[in-house]
Amino acid sequence: MKTIILPLAAAACAMCAAQGAFAQSTPTGVTLYGIVDGGVEVVTHSPGGNGGTAARVSSGNMSTNRWGLRGVEDLGSGLRSIFVLESGFELDTGVSAQGNRLFGRQAYVGLQNQYGALTFGRQQTAIYEMFGAFDAFSTNARYSLSAVDAAFNGRADNAVKYKGSFGGLTTIGYYSFGRNNDGEVPGSPETSRDVGGGVSYSAGNLQVGVAYDQYQGNTQAIRQRNAKRLAAGANYTIGQVKLFGGYRWLQDQGADSATAMGTHTNLYWLGASYQLTGALQLLGGVYYTDQRHGNQDPLLAIVGADYAFSKRTDVYTKLAFARNRGNSNLGAAGVGTVVPDENQTAFTVGIRHRF
C-alpha cells in the first residue's frame, strides 16, 4: 500500500503547490454581509404562565438575523473556489441561533464553474433554497411558510451538494452523511442520512419548482424510519401583483422519535404581494394543513405591509391569525408557539437593515 499511497500523496502535494502559486496571482474577494431585523410583537395564548397575551421584543420578523463571510477566488479557465460562513443570531438576546452554533446557517467550501458548483459542509436543503421564491413572506421570516413546516427552513450537516443553473433552469442535488451532527455512525450509513434535490424553471413572468427531501432516523434504533417530503410551487407576476401558491406532501414515520406513531399530511398555500408604490408593498398568505388521519387541520393566515426607506432599510408590520382544533398547536411563529387547541392572534411591527 505504501508504494501506492506515498507517490499519490507526493503528486497531490506537488499539484497543490503549483495551484497555490498560480492562485496567489489571481483576484480574490471576501464579502462581509448580513441582515439585522427586530421589532415588537404582541401574541395571544402564548405558552407559559397562564397562557395569556405576551408582549416582547421579537427577532427576525421579516428576515432571520445573520452575518456572514462569502469568498471567491478565480483559479483560471472559468474555475473558481468559493466558501460561505454564515451565522444566525437572535437580536433580542444576542445569542447564536440554530442551536447556539457559530456558523449554524451555512458553512461550506467548494469549486464552481459554468457547469455548476460542488460544495461540502453544512448547507441548505433544496426545499429551503428553492421555496422562498414560492411564498409571499419568503421562508426566512417568523410568520411564513416555514412556521407551518420547519423543513422549509431546513439545513443538513455533513452534506455534499451540487447546484447548477442553465438559463432559466436550476438544479440541486445533495447527500448528507449525518444531517444533524448525530450521524456518520460506522457500519450504519442509514443513520441520520439526508438525501434530496429539486428543479426550478423561470420563463418570463412564471417560475415553477419541485423539490424532494428524505431523511432517516437519527439513532441506530430508528434508522429505518424516515420522513419524506415532496413539494411543488409556483409564482406568477402580473404588473405590480405577484401571485404565489404551492403544495407539500409529507409522510413522517417518526424519524426523530422512538415513540412517534407517524404523520401523513398535505399542506396547501396561496399568497400575493402588491407593489402599491415604489416604496410600499402589501402582502398576504393563507396556509392550510390537511392531516389525513386526524381532525386537527390547522390554518394560518397572514397579512403585512413593508415600506422601504432605501434599498437597505425598511419598516414593516404583520398581522397573523392561527386557527387550531383537535389539540393542534400551530402558532404564528411555528408549531408549539401557542397553547394547544387555542387560536392565536399575533401582531408585530419592526425595522430591518441589510448590509
Automatic annotation (TrEMBL):
Keywords assigned by UniProt, alphabetized: Cell outer membrane, Ion transport, Membrane, Porin, Signal, Transmembrane, Transmembrane beta strand, Transport
Domain of life: Bacteria
Signal peptide: 1-23
Transport found in the keyword field: yes
Topology of the protein relative to the lipid bilayer: Multi-pass membrane protein
SUPFAM superfamilies, alphabetized: Porins (SSF56935)
Record keyword Transport present: yes
Subcellular compartments: Cell outer membrane
InterPro entries with a match to the protein in the record: Gram-neg_bact_OMP, Gram_neg_porin_domain, Porin_dom_sf, Porin_Gram-ve
Record-annotated Porin domain positions: 10-326
Subunit structure: Homotrimer.
Name recorded for this polypeptide: Outer membrane porin protein
Source lineage: Bacteria, Pseudomonadati, Pseudomonadota, Betaproteobacteria, Burkholderiales
